[in-house]
Amino acid sequence: ETESPIERIERKIYFQSFFKGEEVGLTHPTHDSVVKLNNVGDIDIFTRDNTGISIDSKLQVINMFANEIKQHVSTTRKWLSGDEHSYIKGNKTEHIVGEVKLKSDGKMTIIVDNELLAKVKSVNFEVSGDANIKVNGNVDASVKGHAKIKADDNIILRSEKNIDIEAKGYMRFDGDKVFIGSEVLDEWKKRYE
Predict the structure, then answer these.
(1) What's the whole-number mean pLDDT along residues 78-92?
(2) Residue 35 half-sphere exposure, CB side, CA atoms within 13 Å?
(3) Alpha carbon of 18 to those of 29, 32, 33, 54, 55: distances in Å?
(4) How many angstroms separate the CA atoms of 13 and 104, rounded?
(5) Confidence check: pLDDT of 185 > 80
(6) DSSP per-residue codes, 74-124
(7) What is the DSSP-derived secondary structure letter of residue 12?
């Protein structure tokens, strides 16, 4: 029967305080804390409650077991030649005093199954290429201040049904040519052409 990686680790932890063959290490006589170098080159460092580190020489994997891991360092750097995967069963909270930069030479994808909530003081987006936004549901935008859309080319609002524009104050259309309504479109075109 093939042993799963989890079962292999659990078996190692169970037999961590036992030595066989040419294995060497240290075991505390009363607390069962152990440092062991086994016959295949693995290194196990564990306390009695199975908190510790297991270094697998065959798979080149470092396994850490603890209820909580704390790091007290000045700077952390990571160089990953492959992928990085994280599975978090609970919540994740990060408090960053300084600046946060996310840079990707490829594609960046954010997938949220429930709700994405962003609370910021100001937002600036600069897109060198095209921007495509697809919404399967509704879009609600509430602006307390001034809202402005500026384009060097055309702006098109297209709806398969209705477009409602409401203003409590006045509504102004400024342009060299203004076309309103499909029935008078040809007449306006003739007048301004």
Answers:
(1) 90
(2) 2
(3) 12, 10, 11, 15, 17
(4) 39
(5) no
(6) S------SS------SS------SS------SS------SS------S---
(7) H
